[in-house]
Amino acid sequence: MNSELLIQLDELETCLKATGLWQDEPISAKALTSTEPFCCDTMTFAQWLQFVFLGKMRTMVESGEALPENMAIAPMAEMVLSEHLYFNAVHQCLKNLDNTIAKSA
Fold first, then answer.
1. Which residues are CB-contacts of 42 (< 8 A; sequence separation ≥ 6)?
2. 35, 63, 99, 103 - which has most CB atoms within 10 Å?
C-alpha cells in the first residue's frame, strides 16, 4: 500500500508540472504558517498541494505514520480548479489518492 501511495504522489507531482500548476520558486515561510484549511488565506490550492500536501503525505507514508481517515482532497479541486484547462488530469490524480487512502483505513 505504501509503495502505491508514493507512486500516486509522484504522479500528482508530475501532473502538476505537466499542467503548469507547479511553481519553481519556493513559497514564503510566512505562507506556510497559515492555520486555515488548505492554507487558503496564504496560497492557491495548487501551491498547497505542492508545498504542504505532497511533503506531508510523503513523510507520513515513509515513516509509517497513520494516514488520515476519510481524506477527500478531490472535492476541493472540484471547487477551485474546475475552470482550469487541465482540471480533469489533476482531479483524477486526487481521486486516485482519496480512493487508495480510503481503502487503507
1. 30, 31, 32, 33, 34, 36
2. 99
Give residue limits of the domains in the chain: 2-23+41-64+71-104
Q: Hey, is 34 helix, strand or coil?
A: coil
For residues 8 and 28, give the distance between their C-alpha atoms in angstroms, rounded to a whole number.
Answer: 26
Q: What's the angle, vertex CA 91, arms to CA 62 and CA 68, rounded to 5?
A: 35
Task: State if pTM tops 0.90.
Answer: yes
DSSP-assigned letters across all residues of 74-96 = HHHHHHHHTTSTTHHHHHHHHHH
